[in-house]
Design a protein that fits this description.
This protein has nine helices and 15 strands. Helices cover about 40% and strands about 20% of the residues. By secondary structure, it is α/β, with parallel strands linked by helices. It has two domains: about 90 residues, no CATH class; about 240 residues, Glycerol-3-phosphate (1)-acyltransferase (3-Layer(aba) Sandwich). The strands form four sheets. Strands 9-15-14-10-13-11-12 form a seven-stranded mixed sheet, sandwiched between helices. It has a three-stranded antiparallel sheet with strand order 2-3-6, with helices on one face.
Amino acid sequence: MVFSSSYFQLSAFNGLYCSTYKDPTKTHLEHNGIQNRVFFSKAIIPYKSQCFLHTRERLANMSASYKLPKQNKKSRSVIVRSEIAGTGSPETSYRLSEIQLVSKIRGICFYTVTSFVAIFLFVAMVVGHPFVLLRDRYQRNIHNFIAKIWASMTIAPFFRLKIQGYENLPPKDSPAVYVSNHQSLLDIYTLLTLGRNFKFVSKTAIFLYPVVGWAMFLLGTIPLKRMDRKSQLQTLKRCMELVKVGGSVVFFPEGTRSRDGSLGTFKKGAFSIAAKTGVPVVPLTLVGTGNIMPAGMEGTLNAGTVKIVIHQPVVGDNTDILCTNVRNVIADELDRHG
């Protein structure tokens, strides 16, 4: 808001005409329970406001109460903050800033911990990789065990994790297609704690990240170029080949992280693989990751609890029916958690 004069201001507030003038006895702008404080760059100047229903009433009051001073040549910019009387307080904004600051500090600590732990565990993965390629190329049990340790040590200091329906998980050596909703970067960390030998499908750019990207390569993560149709077909082909030899894959069929927590449209690639190979689809619902680290705000980390709900496997040979049924299961679970 810009004042053309340091003494007088006209404005419209909720359909009313308001005039504001200097009053040395008042320190706030008051109207119908609203307190307004006017902040100038160097000092706080007290003002008082009056509101009128009609223009004539406003002008009559103006002429009777005071005379208009001449306008200053230079306008002065001010910032007006309105607060609900009785509930708002000057400290409210400061508390919000403190919360944001704490979340940013937690985010820095989170990445520090995960990077520090990853360095040591990555060395163990490199040492064991020749044995994995010779004896356990598809399951990669050693690498997945190391990844579980990495994920568990990373999230343990920062948020609680609850798992429901653990009995619904297929055995480690049993092939399956795992399907989950996608809300946050933390989804991958959370799923790795399940200790299953599934392979993720990830953007090719992720593999360029030092240590973490290289570890994903050793885990057997399947690369994907999102906008490349040929790459998508190759990715589905590799996933199908992996499932046929006893491996498992995990998909985020929404394709990208949800920014508002709502469940997006499912792509049918994962369900096509399950329908053609006859392996079960295991629906997974992640609750809370989007609140702790929202999409687009990866530099912050809030406090909270994450819950993994493991649903009963779904089997079928019709891609569309599988897709619809699994999405309904996950959507219903998200609705139950609000």
